[in-house]
Amino acid sequence: MTIISAAIVLLLILDPFGNLVTINTLLSDVPPKKRQRIILRESLIAYGIMVLFLFGGNPLLSFFGVESHTLRISGGIILFLIALGMVFPSRSAMPSSLDSEPFIVPIAMPLIAGPSAIAALLVMAKSDPQLLGNWLGALTFSMGIVGVILWASPWIFQRLGPRGALAVERLMGMLLIILSVQMMLDGVEQYLDF
Q: Where are the transmembrane segments (predicted)?
């Protein structure tokens, strides 16, 4: 996997357009300017979490004896469940509103730095540990795009309208279902070759 393809995969998994709908729905009672500050803070926290997992996740998993094929299969299953909630919102596990201003949960993690993004980073790092700098570059590039989209999301959400935002979320959900199935198949193939 090249740095460009890794960045594109991460961008699809991070799903800024699907998260745009969910985050703006969760923060609907917050004024747009404050909403942008919250989104920027949560994006930076999510980036920090993912960098930690990129560099420290595999040693931790090795300590517990988790193999890369297990990681691919479990990451694919989690991504599939999240994507299913995007395509069929009534099946979503996310709350529809928040009682207080979010801090880390649920925006930074699991919406932005979700299990599927973390699993993808761990798989990249395990597949070629010598390319950690490339994987960090791919993560930084994709998170930069995600951060800009999410920061502008109050404006985008307003322009798309509820129906347009829902259509974008479902389209991204379909793409993520395809990615999740491929991730699981790669894990099964790696297990059978093991």
A: 44-66, 73-91, 103-123, 135-157, 163-185
